[in-house]
Design a protein that fits this description.
alpha/beta, Spore Coat Polysaccharide Biosynthesis Protein SpsA, Chain A, 10 helices, 9 strands, Nucleotide-diphossugar_trans, Spore coat polysaccharide biosynthesis protein SpsF, Cytidylyl_trans
């Protein structure tokens, strides 16, 4: 069973409550979840958030929209994923972060197929920041959960897998140059939120494909410039 887990919580350090900020007339997290519903190969879609009271509004908004919610450990996100995967009996886990409102279900399906055909433990689809997809064998996820003992691994779900290629079969699903741009479509700061808002408006608030969004940004460098200086956190920041 292919389980797509979207991780999100309210306590973002740089932009608290961002996943419930409005985008195209509704909470941003719903944009992410609704787009993922169009995947052909995802069997179950669930939001995984923490058990803390501050995440109650997030869980309630997602439940009211008709989506599944799993609640687990706040900081040991790898354990949250492991518990969620066991709860749903997953064989394959697709990891998506809730601050990526333009995730493309076609790229998700491509990642799932590459993971399956290459018989990998971990596969990543690297593209523009905010369109990234990671696909993990549940058995490998559980093994990482058992071995991970540092915050850089427990807070960043897949980091133990891709930093230990000697233990796991790790690979990348290659994409053409069309999908390789230095753009940011994830939301970490106000500048990012301004960009995704302008993109949503430019797309007529519809679920446009990644290709359409990239073409739009190619034609609007002034929008790209808004968050060009935002720094992406790395494992070293943990």
């Amino acid at each position: 069973m292919n389980l797509c887990i979207v991780q999100a919580r309210m306590a973002s350090t740089r932009l608290p409550g961002k996943v419930l900020m409005e985008l195209a007339g509704q909470p941003m997290i719903l944009q992410t979840l609704q787009r993922l519903q169009a995947s052909k190969y995802v069997d179950q879609l669930v939001l995984a958030t923490s058990h803390l009271p501050q995440d109650d509004p997030l869980a309630e908004a997602v439940k009211q929209a008709g989506f599944q919610v799993f609640r687990g450990d706040e900081t040991h996100v790898l354990r949250r994923y492991g518990d969620c995967s066991r709860h749903y009996g997953a064989k394959t886990v697709i990891r998506i972060t809730g601050d990526c409102p333009f995730v493309d279900p076609q790229l998700v399906d491509y990642g799932i197929l590459c993971h399956r055909m290459q018989e990998l433990d971990y596969a990543s689809v690297s593209s523009i920041r905010g369109l990234d997809v990671e696909v993990v064998a549940a058995t490998a996820l559980y093994e990482a959960e058992e071995k991970a003992d540092e915050p850089m691994y427990t807070e960043h779900v897949t980091s133990y897998l891709y930093t230990h290629p000697e233990q796991f079969r790790v690979g990348k699903a290659s994409l053409g140059t069309r999908y390789q741009r230095p753009y940011r479509l994830c939301v970490d700061e106000e500048a990012d939120y301004e960009v995704v808002t302008k993109v949503a408006e430019g797309m007529g608030n519809r679920h446009a494909s990644a290709g359409e969004i990239i073409l739009f940004l190619d034609q609007h460098p002034e929008i790209v410039a808004i968050n060009a200086q935002v720094r992406q956190k790395t494992l070293a920041d943990t």
